[in-house]
Write a structure and sequence with these properties.
293 residues; metal-binding; 12-stranded mixed sheet; hydrolase activity; FAH; Fumarylacetoacetate hydrolase, domain 2; metal ion binding; hydrolase; 2 domains
Amino acid sequence: MKICRYNEGLPGLIEGDAIYPLADALATTGATRAQASMAEVIDALANHPGAQDALAVARRGEALPLAAARLLAPIDNPPAIWAGAANYRSHQTEMTGRVGAYDRSQFSPDELMAEVFLKPSSAIVGPGGTVILPKIANHVDFECELCVVIGRSAKDVSAEQALDYVFGYTMCWDISIRDPWGRRHNTRNIRKGFDTFCGVGPWFVTRDEIREPQNLHIDVEQNGSNVMHAHTADMINGVRELIRFLSSVTTLKPGTLITTGTPAGVSQLAAGDRLKGTIGGIGSMELDVAAAA
């Protein structure tokens, strides 16, 4: 199923071309409190014994046409946003030429995953949102990535069990300044942490609809031209390994996002650009680009 956040920040169940409101259904069945956060909604849908009853109640309610709703980022305040770094060989190669990135070819899996970084929730922007290019930035790239949504608290989880802790999947745009601060020292948290630098959407697709997260195509169009065509099978560390590694470090709570790194094909952004990303099994999400006022 697809779970979204729409209009005034309400949780919804998408079926076909309709959105069924979820907030009242979850609250009246006791699955969540009233005005629950999206992290609480995810926790309830993944773990509460009354979740199926709540979904049945929602489906009996009055639906809103999907085309009439304003989709927001499916979560606006996740417990954490963990972001994989240099997780495709092709992207490692292009970044060597782009910013003189150091050679990671001999890194062990855990050495590479130790470069995972955090993005702030204040950077989140949703479908149809606008990426604002900071005045200080001389060069900003997009990165488009498969993003994992955690559904159950996970600590010290094996790779073999990792997908049992996944609620679903979405798309993440990891917008990144390359100049200034893109050379010589580690500045990812700043360069990738500006407001609007974390596009998330268009919704969450639950894990039962994605049989294998390492078998998805990623495509990006910039102003109508295809600039990225990639496949998640080419990740160095897949979803299972990322969950294993991160859960060995910290407890991954429901609603936590793990974005898995970009393939090659990143491209510089300019004011007026229009981006459209598509991930197989998930859907498409568009962003506009504008200069800071």
